[in-house]
Amino acid sequence: MPSLRLGDLAPDFEQASSDGPIRFHQWLGDSWGVLFSHPADFTPVCTTELGKTARLSEDFAQRNVKAIALSIDPVESHLRWIDDINQTQGTEVRFPIIADADRKVSELYDLIHPNASTTATVRSLFIIDPAKKIRLIITYPASTGRNFDEILRVIDSLQLTDSNSVATPANWKDGDDVVILPSIQDPEVLKQKFPQGFDVVRPYLRYTSLPKRAA
User: Does pTM top 0.90 for this prediction?
Assistant: First the structure.
C-alpha cells in the first residue's frame, strides 16, 4: 500500500482493543482524532507518552479530540500495561489501545518500515479531522518521546485556520497574532473578515489578532 499523505481519507478498520471491538470511523464520530502507534507494550518511552495522554484528557476533550493508541501486542497484554501506566504515571488511562496482532491496522497506516523493523511498528502519530481526513503525520525515532505541547498546538492551529482565513506563523501559540492568507486582497473583504484591523509588513505578510481559545 502506498504511503498515506496529508488530505487522504484515514483508512477505516475494525479491530480489537482494550475497550472492546472498535470500528474506527464510527468510534471517531464527529470528533477530531489522534492515533499514535507504539512498537510494543511495556516500553519505557511509550509508557510515559500514554500516561501524558491520559493526564491531558481534559485538554483533548476541550478541543473535541479523541485519543487512541496502537500496539501489536494482544488485548490481555494491553490491560496489564494499562495497570502499569496508571501506577507509574499517576493517572488513569481511559482511551483505547488497539490490539493489532495481525498487523492489519499497521499495514493500512504504513507503520511497518523494513529499515527500522520488519515486524514492529514505527512510532507515528496522525491527527485526523471530523471529515476523517489526515491533517498531520509525524514519525518519531524510538528514543525520542513525543512533544504533547506541539500536538495540542497543531490541533489549535488546524481548528483555528479551518474556521478563519488565516495561517499561523512560526512558533505560534493560542492567543498569538496570526497571518492573513495572501489570497485575500479585496479591501472590503478584508474589512469584513478582520474588523479588528491588521498590520501590513508586506502585501503578502499581514498580521492580525484573533480571540484566544476559551479555557
Answer: yes
Q: Does residue 68 carry a catalytic annotation?
A: no
Cα–Cα distance, 153 to 107 (Å, whole number)? 28
Assess whether 112 and 180 both reside in one domain: no
Of 4, 46, 54, 72, the catalytic one is: 46
Model confidence pLDDT, tens digit, residues 12-61 = 999 999 999 999 999 999 999 999 998 889 999 999 999 999 999 999 99
- CA 55 from chain center: how many Å? 16
CATH, residue 169:
3.30.1020.10
The pair phi, psi for residue 101, each rounded to 5°, is -60, -30
Shared domain check, 46 and 137? yes
**SS3 helix, strand, coil % of the chain, rounded to 5?**
30, 25, 45
- Range of 200's domain? 164-208
